[in-house]
Amino acid sequence: MDAIDAGSRPRPALVLVHGTRMNAAQWEPYRALLPDVQLVTVDLPGHGDRVGEEFTAESALSTIDRAVGRARAVAGGVPPVLCGHSLGGYLSMTWADQHPGELGGLVLLGATADPRSRLAGVYRGFARVLPVVGPDRMARAVNAVMRVLGARGEHARLLPDGAAYAALPAAWELVMSGGGPQLLTSVDVPVTLVNGQLDQMRLHVGRYAAACRQVRVVTVPRASHLLPATHPEQVAEVLRAAWERASSG
Predict the structure, then answer these.
(1) DSSP letters of the chain?
(2) Which of 128, 201, 207, 211 is a Cys-bridge partner for 110, taking CB atoms 3.0 to 4.6 Å apart?
(3) Looking at the domain assignment, is residue 183 inside a domain?
(4) What is the total count of domains within the chain?
(5) Is residue 54 part of a domain?
(6) Range of the domain at 49
(7) Is 209 a domain residue?
């Protein structure tokens, strides 16, 4: 991580929280796409270097808490921009709701389906089917879909195996029980809601936008829920815009 130039005005860091089954490696290609932005990435419990660790609400939110603390430290105390994809998005809005005044901005990627809707049944059903299909077989199928949808180069190489699926039931149960647009009513910084045009998780984006005090809604054409891997340039452009807004605030 680059040191801050002592003669320049400190600018915020960007905290990136991955989605289900992914890990901090999901964001490595973004270092080249955002070379002048300090990135802080994490592995959630049960993912990446923490595979095998139990996923709980406390451990997941503590992970974000520590990442935000690191981001403030490397940016001279400037509040960071927090971005989460899918599961990471729901966790990020939960953390933001609990920590008003501690962020410079919030970006949610593929995290605007209300988990209190009928969609909850789909994800609970997926969790029940997973042990039958097997995590490795499921991972191969999902990775193949991601490649068909556009994951190329380093994004394709970094696709994980099935080990992190063990954390899925607990992770999504947490989202189903506590997630939703009501979490954004207390968020006092600009919020960017980003979805792929073909993403089922943008179903209730209007509800989430209505709950925000300051909001920008972005729909990436022809992208799916997997847009951080399949449309990295467009996602990086949105992240830069949120970061620049926080930098000028």
Answers:
(1) -PPPPTTS-----EEEE--TT--GGGGTTHHHHSTTS-EEE-PPTTSGGGTTSPP-HHHHHHHHHHHHHHHHHHTTTPPPEEEEETHHHHHHHHHHHHSTTS-SEEEEES--S-TTSTHHHHHHHHHHHHHHH-HHHHHHHHHHHHHHHT--HHHHHT---GGGGGGHHHHHHHHHHH-SGGGGGG--S-EEEEEETT-GGGTTHHHHHHH-SSEEEEEETT--TTHHHH-HHHHHHHHHHHHHHHHT-
(2) 201
(3) yes
(4) 1
(5) yes
(6) 14-247
(7) yes
